[in-house]
Amino acid sequence: MLARTFFNQLFLFKPSQIHLTTLANRSITTAARLKKQLNIAPIPRPKIERPIGSDELYKRICVEVRGHDPAVLESYEKFVRQVSTELDIQLINVENPQFFTERWTLLRSKFAKKKYWREYEIRTYYKKFHFKHLTGSTASTFLEYVQRNLPEGIMMIVERTRLEPFAEKLVPPSSSETNTDQQKMS
Q1: What is the pLDDT of residue 94?
Q2: Is pLDDT at 9 greater than 90 in this prediction?
Q3: Please, what is the Cα angle at 171 between 169 and 175, to 5 degrees?
Q4: Cα–Cα distance between 114 and 97 in angstroms, integer?
Q5: Widest Cα–Cα separation across the chain
Q6: Which of 62, 96, 139, 168 is deepest in the core (most CB within 10 A)?
Q7: What's the rounded Cα separation, in Å, for the pair 21 and 2?
Q8: Over the stretch 98-121, which tens digit does the pLDDT of each residue have?
Q9: Residues 6+ apart with CB under 8 A from 166
């Protein structure tokens, strides 16, 4: 298995980048570590240039909160509603998905007899807050404030849907092209 992983990582590079003498003396576990050991520079990604002073736009932000106490989640929901009204953020809806139950049937003690079974249950409650049409600065301020006031024992997952401009290559078809296409079909 280790050799298979090693060869899969080996084929990620160009043959000119790998010297077999350097590979013989080192143990390699991941492709990232291999790149670091061989001093291979990362390939830069193309950056989308934004106009100066523009802000990111988010179509939707979904904040999911999980916890084991429904009363704490109800209290936190009131807090999030109050913060969203104070910051003039559009709260579309709050979902209450059904709780998830995890059950374990275990022996009462490590060395107990088989007749002393106990059943343990863990319930995880959820709340999902859906926000709409936010700017980047408002979203970062809101999320920072909400995350800093997160109660103990509560987990938060944030999903953001950001609006991006179309690439310059994507241009809508002109009306003359669409007319000729329609004439060919008929």
Answers
A1: 94
A2: no
A3: 150
A4: 37
A5: 84
A6: 139
A7: 19
A8: 988 999 988 888 787 888 888 999
A9: none
